[in-house]
Every structure is written in structure tokens, then in C-alpha cells.
Write a structure and sequence with these properties.
Blueprint lengths: L2 H9 L3 E5 L4 H16 L3 E7 H10 L2 H5 L5 E6 L14 H21 L4 H4 L5 E4 L4 H10 L2 E6 L3 H9 L1 H6 L41 H12 L5 E4 L10 H7 L3 E3 L3 H10 L21 H7 L6 E5 L8 H13 L4 E4 L16 H10 E4 L4 H6 L3 E6 L3 H10 L3 E3 L6 H11 L3 E3 L6 H12 L5 H16 L5 H16 L2
Parallel strand pairs: 1-2, 1-4, 2-3, 4-5, 5-6, 6-7, 8-9, 8-11, 9-10, 11-12, 12-13
Helix pairs in contact: 2-12, 5-7, 7-10, 8-18, 14-19
The protein binds uridine-5'-diphosphate.
Uridine-5'-diphosphate (UDP) binds next to helix 2, helix 16 and helix 17.
Enzyme class: transferase
InterPro entries: UDP_glucos_trans, UDP_glycos_trans_CS
Keywords: Glycosyltransferase, Transferase
């Protein structure tokens, strides 16, 4: 080894580039991973596309939280989108297209030609892109950088509807018309008795194989196995049905979930702990924390929490059905009504007066809640959710049973697993009527020896064990850190 080689070897420092897809849930999750890596002494650059970076810094405590880490920095890449662009599920492909057209070539240029000044101060040794950014795997190979993908949708969806999508297409299972939705899908190992057509990722219902979402996911299915590893937000027991099968395709899987509780535990045992007032959230939007005092006034496990996350929408008719169902269940409710989540013109005069009256008595409505703290509050006894993966695993970690009303992508799979595999809730997919909602809410919350609440409790205990010092998720995080160090040497 000559002197230059020796110098290079000794001066290379582990430097991870994290690049999430620009949506609330994935960015929130990726920031938690970033903070855990910073705490392990690894240098981290967090790359956001511009339209999400602005609101993230403006509306949240994120900048002050991360300014405590000298080994952390943010960077941005243009996406050509307006700042603060209101996003709903319908806008998903618009954002992904913008990333593809604007961000992708710039990102490649930055990584391959080294024109990225801030990055080139310290070479990237390991890239952790969202698994959905298949182009990042190509760029990593071209730039000679190791790559570990981070999948923020659920492993059950990733397995059944992403990694197996080429097989499903080849077998003629996908696409299918909107009929015979109860037919079992028998081509996916591990879930032969669980998943019906209606439970596959929502994009499988498209009758067009050139649907851009299908194309995006087929690309992902081909690129992820080429990476050196795959990070999943789950714990071993929770996904024991599918993980052995996934490992045949992607042998190096790090299960580090529930990521938010692992993150919270590591931060509270660290001297740089943030104040309890702001919590541990990286929510891109401002949270209304007054609902926590409203919850304080209620008895344990009496309140139903209603939220459809950051992208899902509902029509006024669906809103009224769900609203009636919740009110008729007689449970006090905390409801997140994200601005823009009701499709069309929301006009209060269209809402029956009795609903508005009853809401004043037993309801609390906010624009955006500190959801992790809400689910951890003792007053919460149930969660009516759109079954986004973050919401689902946050509910699992707190032992809160769920009524699932999935909207799109992985939510159709998650809601099926909640009901049929984890047995901790009711899947209402493809229906929306007040009688069913009322029955489901009562079903998960009434009576002390409620089976849903019992399973939820069991899963919460297992989740808790997984993040203990010797638990599987802690071990996998330790292994990830060791592997990053080894890949960087
Ligand atoms: N969330 C929040 N406040 C709310 C509603 C949601 O902080 O009022 C957070 C929630 O804790 C979760 C994320 O937003 O971490 C939603 O992610 P999920 O995967 O459940 O759904 P998505 O928004 O991606 O559809």
C-alpha cells in the first residue's frame, strides 16, 4: 500500500446519504433512521427534494432538533414543484414524475461527476434511498457506492404486491377487472390463504399494465434485490409469515421496527434528549397539541381516534357515513380533518345538524395531531385509520385495536393483515356505511375481554421486547451500523 492509499484508507469516514421519497410518512421515518445513525457516530446527509424541504423546516422543530448533531446536514435537490404544494393521493404520480424528470438527472450528476460541492467535501460511502427510487440503485452502482434500500411501506405489501408483482403479472393474476374480488391469490408464497384480489396493493386493480404506478413498482421489484441490503420498519415476530420468503430474494434484511419507538427509546436514554413538549415527531406539518389536554379529560380506553393520514381523501358522502357511524357508537372521538382531505366543496350546511350538535358534546376535531402521542395516550381505545403503514405500526406499538378503511397502495394489504393475520381489528375495505362503522367501532372497543384488544396487547408487548437492548430490532440496528462501518472502510 503506498502512502496515498494509506492516507485514503485512514481519512475515509462513514458517510451515509439518506434520500426519502418526498411525502410526509417516508420523510418522517427516514429522519428517525438518520437520527439513530447520527447517535451511532455516522455522518449523515439527508437529501430532500425542494418542495417538501421548505415546509419541513418552516413548520417543525426538526431543524433545531438536528442542529445538535455536528455529523448531520440537510441537502436538497430541485424537483420543479411548487413549495407547499398541497398533496393528496391523486397527486402521488405527479410528484414521482417530477422527481423522475427533474431530480433524477441532477442527483446522478451530483453523485457520479462529484459536482455536488457539499457532498464532495466528504465522499458518500453508503447510500440509503427509498426502495421506490430504483434509479438510485443504478446511480450507486455507477458511482461505486454501496446501497441499502429503505422501504417505508409495509413488508406485507412489499412482499405480496411489489416483489411478487412480476410473478403475479406472469401468472395472469394481475391486472384484474374489478370483479371476483374475493378470489384467493395463491401465487405468493406465505400468504396463499390470506390474500384475496381485493387485498393486493390498490394499483393491482388497474386493468392496464402500462399504468405508471405498475411500471414504477416493477422497476422497484427488479432493483431492490440488487442492493446490499434492505431496511424494513417491522419486527421479526410481526412479519414471521413472510420474512423467510423475502429473505430468499433479499438475503440481507434489517428489521428495525417499530422505528418510532426504537428512536424514542434511544433518544430518551441519550443526554441530547429533546424536550417532552415537542415530542419526538418529525411531522412535516404543525401539530395541534391542544387535543392532548382534551384527551386528559377522558377515562382510559374510551376515545376512538379517527385519521386518514397525509394523503388519503374522502367524499362528503363518505365523511357523513363515517361521522354517523362514529357518533352512533356513542364513543367520544378525536378526529383529524386534514385541510384538503375532503374531496370537493365542504360546506357545513350539507352536514346534518344532529351530527354537528353531537360533535360539540363528544368530539374534538383538529387539522393535524401529534399522532404518536395521541396513540400512546391512555384515553385512546381504538383507531379508525386509513391503514397507512406508519399509522398501523404506531397503533401496533401502543396496543390500540383498529377499524381499517384503506385508501390506496399498501393500505389494502395492511388492513387485511390487521384483521386476518394479527387479529387486532376489523377491515372495512370497499364499504362505507354508518351501520358497519358503528358496529366495527363498538366491536373493537366494547367489553373488557375484547379479543381485538387482547391481540393488540400481545403485539404491543412483542413490539416492546423487540426494541429492548437484546431484542431483534435493536440487534438489527446494531448490525446495520456495523455493516455501514464495514462498507465504508
Ligand atoms: N400523522 C400525524 N398527525 C396526524 C396524522 C398523521 O403526525 O394528524 C403522522 C402519523 O403519525 C404517521 C404519518 O403521519 O407517522 C402518516 O403515515 P402513514 O404511513 O400512516 O400514512 P400516509 O400519510 O403516508 O398515507
Amino acid at each position: 500500500m503506498n502512502q496515498n492509499d494509506q492516507q485514503n484508507t485512514t481519512t475515509i469516514q462513514p458517510h451515509v446519504l439518506i434520500f426519502p421519497i418526498p411525502f410526509q410518512g417516508p420523510v418522517n421515518c427516514a429522519l428517525k433512521l438518520a437520527e439513530l445513525l447520527c447517535l451511532s457516530g455516522i455522518n449523515v446527509t439527508f437529501l430532500n427534494t425542494e418542495h417538501i424541504h421548505g415546509p419541513l423546516l418552516r413548520h417543525t422543530q426538526v431543524l433545531s432538533r438536528f442542529s445538535r448533531y455536528p455529523n448531520f446536514k440537510f441537502d436538497t435537490v430541485p424537483d420543479g414543484l411548487e413549495h407547499e404544494k398541497p398533496v393528496s393521493g391523486d397527486g402521488f404520480m405527479e410528484v414521482m414524475d417530477a422527481v423522475d424528470k427533474v431530480s433524477k438527472p441532477l442527483f446522478r450528476e451530483m453523485m457520479v461527476s462529484g459536482k455536488w460541492s457539499r457532498i464532495s467535501e466528504r465522499p458518500v460511502t453508503v447510500m440509503i434511498p427509498d426502495a421506490c427510487f430504483s434509479f438510485a440503485v443504478d446511480v450507486a452502482v455507477e458511482a461505486g457506492v454501496q446501497v441499502v434500500c429503505f422501504e417505508t411501506v409495509s413488508p406485507c405489501c412489499m412482499w405480496t404486491s411489489y416483489l411478487n408483482l412480476p410473478t403475479l403479472i406472469e401468472a395472469g393474476d394481475v391486472p384484474f377487472e374489478d370483479n371476483d374480488l374475493d378470489r384467493l391469490i395463491t401465487t405468493v408464497p406465505g400468504t396463499e390463504h390470506v390474500i384475496r384480489r381485493r387485498d393486493l396493493g390498490s394499483f393491482c386493480r388497474s386493468n392496464d399494465l402500462s399504468d405508471p404506478v405498475i411500471e414504477l413498482i416493477v422497476k422497484e421489484a427488479k432493483s431492490v434485490p440488487r442492493a446490499q441490503g434492505l431496511i424494513l420498519n417491522t419486527f421479526e415476530e410481526l412479519d414471521s409469515l413472510i420474512l423467510p420468503h423475502m429473505r430468499k430474494l433479499c438475503p440481507n434484511i434489517y428489521t428495525i421496527g417499530p422505528l418510532h419507538t426504537l428512536h424514542k427509546t434511544r433518544l430518551t436514554t441519550n443526554p441530547t434528549q429533546p424536550s417532552q413538549e415537542t415530542g419526538f415527531s418529525n411531522s412535516v406539518w404543525k401539530e395541534d397539541r391542544t387535543c392532548l389536554s382534551w384527551l386528559d379529560k377522558h377515562d382510559p380506553k374510551t376515545v376512538i381516534y379517527v385519521s386518514i393520514g397525509s394523503l388519503a381523501t374522502m367524499t362528503v358522502e363518505q365523511l357523513v357515513e363515517i361521522w354517523y357511524g362514529v357518533v352512533n357508537s356513542e364513543k367520544p372521538f378525536l378526529w383529524v380533518r386534514r385541510p384538503g382531505s375532503i374531496v370537493g366543496e365542504y360546506d357545513e350546511s350539507r352536514i346534518p345538524a344532529e351530527l354537528l350538535e353531537r360533535t360539540k358534546e363528544i368530539g374534538c376535531i383538529v387539522d393535524w395531531a401529534p399522532q404518536e402521542d395521541v396513540l400512546a395516550h391512555q384515553a385512546i381505545g381504538g383507531f379508525l385509520t386509513h391503514s397507512g403503514w406508519n399509522s398501523t405500526i404506531e397503533s401496533i406499538a401502543e396496543g390500540v385495536p383498529m377499524v381499517c378503511w384503506p385508501y390506496f397502495v399498501d393500505q389494502q394489504v395492511n388492513s387485511r393483515f390487521v384483521e386476518a393475520v394479527w387479529k387486532m381489528g376489523v377491515d372495512m375495505k370497499d364499504t362505507c356505511d354508518r351501520v358497519r362503522v358503528e358496529k366495527a367501532v363498538r366491536g373493537i372497543m366494547d367489553s373488557k375481554d375484547n379479543v381485538f384488544a387482547q391481540s393488540a396487547n400481545t403485539w404491543a408487548n412483542l413490539a416492546h421486547e423487540s426494541i429492548s437492548k437484546t431484542g431483534s430490532s435493536s440487534t438489527h440496528l446494531g448490525r446495520l451500523v456495523d455493516d455501514i462501518l464495514a462498507m465504508s472502510s
